[in-house]
Amino acid sequence: LRTQTVLMTSSSSGDLYPFFGNKSTGGRAFSITTSDLWHRRLGHPGKSSLASTISNFLPDCNNSAPSFCEACHLGRQPRLAFASSNNVTTAPFQLVHCDLWTSPVTSFSGFAYYLVVLDHYTHYSWTFPLRAKSDTSPTLLRFFQYILTQFHVLIKCMQYDNGGSSSIQPFVPFSLIMG
Ligand SMILES: [Zn+2]
């Protein structure tokens, strides 16, 4: 812009402007750009596509590894970010998270559901393969019993996603549930 020098010209027969770049022409036009800038200009291509484009068409481009691209990361996220949590635990089994995942494919052994239990304090998790959704409650009861037997503590609170909004429920001892 400063020198008003024409660096390159290209004729177009349609909506696109073809660029037949080679080592001698156009090099100056791209020598001051970085691979990050080309990543954005070319519509955020993947690493290998960008590297191939740079090596074939942009000979003098600063071919450094592209840095972190926030737009790419956000664009690949199918969900919004989780709401920040202010749950604080000071010991294991004060808060336990549960989630039941339905597999689109039944396993060779006939498991179609996977119950994941995660302790908030330790982040230790247990995964139970289930054949039926109705196996969830008995499996959880066995898990509570296991925690009581092995660690001599009762789970205080459970957080689960009831097919929608998540909620924290005080844990009802299994003797009450079973009774
Ligand atoms: Zn990107």
Would you mind describing this structure in some detail?
By secondary structure, the chain is an alpha+beta fold. The protein has 2 domains: 1-80, no CATH class; 95-178, Nucleotidyltransferase, domain 5 (2-Layer Sandwich). The protein is built from 6 helices and 5 strands. Strands 3-2-1-4-5 form a 5-stranded mixed beta sheet, with no helix packed on it. The N and C termini lie far apart (82 Å). The model is unreliable at 174-179 (pLDDT under 50). Residues 39, 44, 69, 71-72 line the site of zinc ion (ZN).
What's a concise summary of this model?
The chain has six helices and five strands. With 179 residues, it is of the alpha+beta class. A five-stranded mixed β-sheet has the order 3-2-1-4-5, with no helix packed on it.
